[in-house]
Amino acid sequence: MSSTARTLTIVLFLVLVLVTLAITIWANRQTRNATDFYAGGRSFSGFQNGMAIGGDYMSAASFLGIAGIIALSGYDGFLYSIGFLVAWLVALLLVAELLRNSGRYTMADVLAYRMRQTPVRTAASVSTIVVSIFYLLAQMVGAGSLVALLLGIKEGQTFLGLTPTTAKILTIVLIGILMIAYVVIGGMKGTTYVQIVKAFMLMLGAILMALLVAIAFRFNLSSLLGDAAAKSGKGAEFLEPGLKYGKDIAGNSGATLVSKLDLLSLGAALVLGTAGLPHVLIRFYAVPNAKAARRSVLWAIGIIGVFYLLTLALGFGAAALVGGKAIAAQDPGGNTAAPQLAQVLGARYLGGSTGGAVLLAVIAAVAFATILAVVAGLTLASSSSVAHDLYANVLRRGQTSEREEVNVARYAAFGVGAVAIVLAVFARSLNVAFLVAVAFAIAASANLPAILFSLFWKKFNTRGAVWGIYGGLISAVLVVLLSPICWGGSNSNLPAVKLTATQAADCGVPTSSTEVNNATALFSCTTPAPIPFSNPGLISIPIGFLAAYIGARTSRERDPERYAELEVRSLTGAGSV
Amino acid sequence: MATETPAPPAPPDEGRYRALQDSDGFGALRKAFRGFVFPTTVAFLVWYGLYVVLSAYARGFMGTKVVGHINVALVFGLLQFVSTFLIAWLYARFASRRLDPVADQLRQEIEGSEQQ
């Protein structure tokens, strides 16, 4: 990275930090009571909230991650985009409006509506915190590596006296402090405006780049795809599913089956996870009524859909104009594909190397904004749940003042943020991108069954909710702990891979070793995983639904009057706050 | 609080909401709502599942060229976008025409009687 681009990147980062902090301080003056803090005073319009949902939802994994997967592995990145988008129909049709009508601040408000408060709110809060921390870790560790890459600090070099390791740690801590500040000072209002600003930046950046890609290929999609496939060296296969997910492994039907089922498992978690993500669910409370909640989801579907269409152009554009080799040389995960594409496009269309540096810096700032908005949303969701569910309703049984509850939420944001910072610093060199998919799988397995049964099934009860949440949560985490993500050894279903010198050294085996299936496994490279799937969804989602069903069936607790109240209120909006 | 008070405690007449739940007006609203969202959910999940399964197992079919370098996989993927936008639009239209008027009226009746 040239020094112009680096200076400009740092300037833009600083501007972004100052603008978002100014918004947050302004929002602080508008925050007077619990509804302001938790739900932004329910004052946002459908359009504003739709943009904020987009800003909350489209993480760096969406922007840099999907563009990178498409740039390196072709079509398979598109599978992610489609899952992430279609998932919004579950939220639109089954969850958003009913939640808005019957809850106040958190996911647990709806789950505990007709149940015993203590066990259900505790379970919902545990699940909210686990999902949010996993998602936070993925974002923060990713941000650490990303900022080092965006500033162009390579191994063995220093920048302002910082080695890549210290730069990573510093970035993680800085992002942690910023997200705590947004939430503690600005609450839901501050967080929402940060997310709206980010959504606009992300859309403008993506539209500009996609437009330049389109100009480069004279608005001819087929020639873009043709060039991308030719330059990838993989030919037509680059444009078909199967290079990354659900691989066909010649002569090994067991391994092929495992790989295909893993793809189906990923697909299930993506489409069912969104409507169970706590930081997405609390956004439905930031609008005045259910109709506005519906409109905000419609806007969200619009901008998220358009954005994922644009990533197709960005990913294939990067493959065609930058090339997989140059991208993998910077980051084997492909996360720098979009910034590298920006540099090439800027140089070609915006005036030589300066233009390249400018567009690169702008896109780097967009990526930074993207991360900030998402981590703020996650911190808000978990601290709201700690304060409103655990403190106010479990610990104090509802006997607490609003002021006290909001203060606890602010302390909780400090706590959650601090835990996330410490964990992210320790996990900084691990490959944690998988945690986003795990967070979706937990949301789909633990939260969604309980939410749907609560809203639609008369006989659902406390035991069903508790069993469903813990059953889905524990099974999803357990499957991951027993999966190739943690245990990288090879066996008949997990064929050995060719190792690079670095990977072999990391694993402590010779490069000729045939013992390793996943060289980036967390616990061991040579012990084979007891469960061959990396995505827990196919196992844990059915367990979550089944546990919720069996729990409800084996308990005699029924409260038809409260269910009637929940159903009438959720569909008509009567008595909603 | 200035902007928000907790929902009023349920009136002592036990069974009030069950009566509302059993009323013809609410029954019609629930039927209309479930009649739209349940079949639609099943339909889009099956349609999405088909796409994922074909991506996993029907590589030859998905790789068939349609025009130039554009293949069935890409068209199928883009159709998932089209169907998502279409369903969202259909639901919005259905809800504002068929659900909202009924829900609003029921809400007014319920809240009106709660204030008395």
TrEMBL record, chain A:
Keywords: Cell membrane, Membrane, Symport, Transmembrane, Transmembrane helix, Transport. It is a multi-pass membrane protein. It comes from the Bacteria. InterPro entries: Na/Glc_symporter_sf, Na/solute_symporter, Sodium:Solute_Symporter. It holds the Pfam family SSF. PROSITE patterns: NA_SOLUT_SYMP_3 (PS50283). It is found in: Cell membrane. This is Cation acetate symporter. It comes from Rugosimonospora africana.
Automatic annotation (TrEMBL), chain B:
The keyword Chaperone does not apply. Keywords: Membrane, Transmembrane, Transmembrane helix. It holds the Pfam family DUF485. The chain crosses the membrane at residues 36-58, 70-92. It comes from the Bacteria. This is DUF485 domain-containing protein.
